[in-house]
């Protein structure tokens, strides 16, 4: 069987990986059925017929249309052709309008009948990529409230700070700390405390609706809101509305000296980032405003 050309062709056609073989100039010399079928199903630039197609030119065309992966694929293929590396591996997205897809491209040399050829195979790795995306998104969220966690906040704040520095726009940070939450936990139990944190998280999501906004769980019963491109005139009423809405949830905290429903305190800082400053200064200011809000009676917004 191994001597039968027909048998080998059938075997290659039965493989789900898309396989093409090119020569040193990049001209396609062979394509298996999976490769041809994928091309025709997806109206890929290479189309159904492969005769006369130069694979490297196709990568160039993709790169010229702004596809960075085209340029990377070409560089990798050339590195194998020039024998700078024995193999090239490359993961790239190839999404269709209605589904996400990723492929792993492998390029290896194949010396045959004293001529050099190169095998390029594409394996569908979508399942693994989707699982990785899921893990990444779980790692970015707080397990209890399902809103971004501290790590995500730090990253977002860093990027938003830099964006606002570039545009010389104000950036606001509100640190929201629930008042006498320990009493709520002590009287109604830890589970009620958890339920309450979940409700607050849900409420906060409604205060972070723009791409330049983010709400996050900052610590135990502390939350944070970043409002990029937002001035004090906009952030202060927003913060006051947030306090009103927390109170309007009517979450019992009967032993709180402030009132029978749960309240919160907010430290608000607003800065237009200047040279030499970092977002640490914004956090420091919001923290000190929160401290003052707590010191001066809680259930209020303090803004410097
Ligand atoms: N149920 C629950 N409680 C939490 C969680 N994280 C922190 N806490 C509780 O939050 C309470 C915070 O207490 P404190 O730091 O004294 O603050 P506080 O009672 O809110 O008082 P002030 O902030 O000064 O108004 C503690 O009892 C923590 O156990 C959590 O994930 N779930």
UniProtKB/TrEMBL annotation:
<dbReference type="GO" id="GO:0052621">
    <property type="term" value="F:diguanylate cyclase activity"/>
</dbReference>
<dbReference type="InterPro" id="IPR000014">
    <property type="entry name" value="PAS"/>
</dbReference>
<dbReference type="InterPro" id="IPR035965">
    <property type="entry name" value="PAS-like_dom_sf"/>
</dbReference>
<protein>
    <recommendedName>
        <fullName>diguanylate cyclase</fullName>
        <ecNumber>2.7.7.65</ecNumber>
    </recommendedName>
</protein>
<dbReference type="InterPro" id="IPR043128">
    <property type="entry name" value="Rev_trsase/Diguanyl_cyclase"/>
</dbReference>
<dbReference type="InterPro" id="IPR029787">
    <property type="entry name" value="Nucleotide_cyclase"/>
</dbReference>
<keyword id="KW-0548">Nucleotidyltransferase</keyword>
<keyword id="KW-0808">Transferase</keyword>
<dbReference type="InterPro" id="IPR050469">
    <property type="entry name" value="Diguanylate_Cyclase"/>
</dbReference>
<feature type="domain" description="GGDEF">
    <location>
        <begin position="169"/>
        <end position="304"/>
    </location>
</feature>
<dbReference type="InterPro" id="IPR000160">
    <property type="entry name" value="GGDEF_dom"/>
</dbReference>
<dbReference type="Pfam" id="PF00990">
    <property type="entry name" value="GGDEF"/>
</dbReference>
<feature type="domain" description="PAS">
    <location>
        <begin position="4"/>
        <end position="38"/>
    </location>
</feature>
């Amino acid at each position: 069987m191994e001597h039968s050309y027909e048998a080998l062709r059938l075997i290659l056609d039965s493989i789900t990986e898309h396989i093409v073989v090119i020569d040193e100039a990049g001209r396609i010399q062979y394509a298996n059925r999976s490769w041809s079928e994928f091309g025709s199903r997806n109206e890929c630039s290479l189309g159904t017929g492969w005769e006369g197609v130069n694979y490297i030119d196709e990568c160039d065309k993709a790169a010229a249309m702004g596809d960075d992966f085209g340029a990377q694929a070409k560089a990798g293929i050339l590195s194998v052709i020039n024998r700078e590396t024995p193999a090239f591996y490359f993961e790239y997205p190839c999404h269709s309008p209605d589904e996400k897809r990723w492929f792993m491209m492998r390029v290896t040399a194949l010396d045959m009948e004293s001529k050099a050829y190169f095998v390029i195979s594409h394996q569908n790795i979508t399942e693994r990529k989707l699982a990785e995306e899921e893990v990444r998104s779980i790692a970015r969220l707080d397990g209890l409230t399902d809103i971004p966690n501290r790590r995500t906040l730090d990253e977002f704040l860093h990027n938003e700070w830099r964006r606002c520095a570039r545009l010389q726009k104000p950036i606001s940070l509100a640190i929201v700390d629930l008042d006498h939450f320990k009493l709520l936990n002590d009287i109604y139990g830890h589970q009620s405390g958890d339920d309450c944190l979940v409700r607050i998280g849900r409420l906060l999501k409604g205060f972070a609706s723009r791409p330049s906004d983010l709400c996050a769980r900052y610590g135990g019963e502390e939350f944070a809101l970043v409002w990029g491109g937002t001035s004090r005139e906009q952030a202060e009423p927003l913060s006051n509305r947030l306090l009103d809405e927390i109170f309007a949830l009517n979450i019992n905290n009967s032993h709180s000296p402030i009132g029978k429903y749960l309240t919160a305190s907010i430290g608000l800082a607003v800065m237009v980032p200047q040279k030499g400053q970092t977002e640490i200064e914004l956090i420091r200011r919001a923290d000190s405003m929160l401290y003052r809000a707590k010191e001066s009676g809680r259930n209020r917004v303090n803004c410097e």
